[in-house]
Amino acid sequence: MISNFTGKPTGFSLLELLLVMAVLMILAVAGRQLFLSYTASGAVDDVAQELKSEITIAHNKAIAGAYGVNWGIRAVQPDSGQSYYQLFYSPGDFAHPSTTIVNQVYLPIQISFSNPLSGTEKEINFTAYGGTTTATNVIFVAAGTSRQVTVATSGVIEIL
Q1: pLDDT higher for 10 or 58?
Q2: Which of 61, 95, 97, 148 is the most buried (most CB within 10 A)?
Q3: Is residue 127 within 8 Å of 68, Cβ to Cβ?
Q4: Strand (E) or helix (H) holding 93
Q5: What does the angle CA 55 – CA 59 – CA 64 come to, to the nearest 5 degrees?
Q6: pLDDT tens digit sequence for 26-71
Q7: Any bridge partners for residue 72, and if so which?
Q8: pLDDT by residue (tens digit) across 67-122?
Q9: Is the dihedral of CA 14, 17, 22, 23 positive or negative?
Q10: 46: enclosing H helix or E strand
Q11: Would the pTM of this model clear 0.90, i.e. be above it?
Q12: What is the H or E stretch that residue 104 is in?
């Protein structure tokens, strides 16, 4: 504190103000990192929940025998561009010429797949009337946060 000639304080010195500003800047930078981590985690959780819902739709449609064909999800991680997944039905797998894409969902820019790897894709196929599949998983990543959507052979879907 600066004091006048009578010895009474009249304000803050420049050094005191700079120290307070430096402490506030350090707190702001730390808070920003926590906020970004929190929002990335929330975004990955939302995408994982949306994919789980789409997988559930495919599983239920396969069990019900909708259109008498297999139903599935195809996750694509291109070498460049946005990652996406597709809900489809087909007499076989996605490569079958009669495959129909019902829905295609692009992941937010900050989120990508770590499984499937870049330049590859992964399919989750459910057989018509039975709903069985091969066990598999899909992993999302953003800003150090990841979520794994796992599908068991029985069709049970979990987010880990």
Answers
A1: 58
A2: 61
A3: no
A4: none
A5: 150
A6: 988 888 877 777 777 888 899 999 999 999 999 999 999 999 999 9
A7: 88, 125
A8: 999 999 999 999 988 999 999 999 988 999 999 999 999 999 889 999 999 999 99
A9: positive
A10: helix 14-64
A11: no
A12: strand 100-106
Pairing of strands 9-11, 120-126: unpaired
Please give the pLDDT value at position 1.
57
How far is it, in rounded angstroms, from Cα 54 to Cα 51?
A: 5
Q: Is the peptide bond before 9 cis (omega within 30 degrees of 0)?
A: no
What are the φ and ψ backbone dihedral angles of 98, each rounded to 5 degrees? -95, 15
Of 66, 23, 51, which is closest to residue 147 (Cα–Cα)?
51
Alpha-carbon distance values, 66 to 60, 74, 90, 126, 153 (Å): 9, 18, 11, 12, 20
Alpha-carbon 83 to chain mean position: 10
- Bridge partners of 71, per DSSP, are 89, 126
